[in-house]
Amino acid sequence: MKNIVLISLCVILTACGASDGITRSAKKMINGKWLLKNIDYETNAKGTFNITILDKISTQCIEGSHWEFIANNHSGNYELSNDACTEKGIKNFIWSIPTEMYGLEYSIMLKPVNKKMKSTTNDKAYRMQLSELDTATMVWTYDVTIEGKNLLLKLNFVK
Fold first, then answer.
1. Is the pLDDT at 8 greater than 50, yes or no?
2. Coil, strand, or helix at residue 1?
3. Using CA atoms, how far apart are residues 133 and 80, in angstroms rounded to an integer?
4. Which residues, other chains included, contact 3 with Cβ-Cβ below 8 Å and sequence gap of 6+?
5. In the chain, what are the domain boundaries?
6. Domain 2-158's class?
């Protein structure tokens, strides 16, 4: 009986260690400056949609924004400077790569904060699936329902 418990414990610890290793590797790859090159939409719905993400920022505004991720303290920022932006400037956030939840094996979570690292959204955070990641490209996917229609947003970043 002790052997079964010991073997089970070893399997669990090994599995957790592998997951932590992948998370550490992803954090190292994300570290640095990125450009949100474009946002793709996948849907069967027809029409024009006014979509906002990350605390009501229009997708037209956030396209072309410059992002910085700092891995050693999980902070970062992005700059909104596009002509489509009603509110331009630098937005700060805290980020993490949380463990699996809601069927999302790898995801990234962003929490908007002010310059003093205090939440600007009453501790609300935004979680997107981390679909692709390498040293030069990163893709986040985000499911959105607009007027009863499902859309999949793909945020395409380049380093």
1. no
2. coil
3. 23
4. none
5. 2-158
6. mainly beta
